[in-house]
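To the wet lab folks,

You asked to see what we're planning to order before we commit. Fair enough. Below is the target structure as tokens, and below that is the sequence we designed to fit it. If anything looks off to you, flag it before the synthesis order goes out.
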């Protein structure tokens, strides 16, 4: 069995992590800075080499893109499924602050809520709830 973890390369990993922690009720598990490495350039010493966090019950990892240019793409979205509608609405509202709503969170024909947004860091999200099963 494999484990998939989203790893964000960021212009400001700490600010991005703090945003997700507030939006998704999370916590930082660990932080390593470039300054922890030997022979790090002075201007990179306070930048984030690796940050691990947990939010909405999911592990995420982030780092500052110190030595590379960031390019945001549209080929992948992060999808978060919540058991309850209140949780989904709260996450959607908080993640969309400063970002762009692509599709409002609303009921869909398959029996769940679904919405899409791009957060203020340029990350695309799909927020959904577990589909309600019909009882025959």
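Sequence we intend to order:
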């Amino acid at each position: 069995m494999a484990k998939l973890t989203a790893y964000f390369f960021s212009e400001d990993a700490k600010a991005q992590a703090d945003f997700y922690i507030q939006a998704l009720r999370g916590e930082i598990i660990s932080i390593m800075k470039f300054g922890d490495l030997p022979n790090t350039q002075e201007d990179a010493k306070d930048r984030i080499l690796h940050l691990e966090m947990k939010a909405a019950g999911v592990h995420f990892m982030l780092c500052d893109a110190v030595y590379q240019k960031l390019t945001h793409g549209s080929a992948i979205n992060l999808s978060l499924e919540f058991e309850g509608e209140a949780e989904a609405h709260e996450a959607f509202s908080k993640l969309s602050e400063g970002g762009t709503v692509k599709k409002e969170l609303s009921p869909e024909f398959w029996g769940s809520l679904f919405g899409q947004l791009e957060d203020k860091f340029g990350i695309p999200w799909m927020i959904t709830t577990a589909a309600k099963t019909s009882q025959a």
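Structural context that might help your review: Residues 6-64 form a domain with the Signal recognition particle alu RNA binding heterodimer, srp9/1 fold (CATH 3.30.720.100). The CA atoms of residues 45 and 60 lie 22 Å apart.

Thanks,
Computational group
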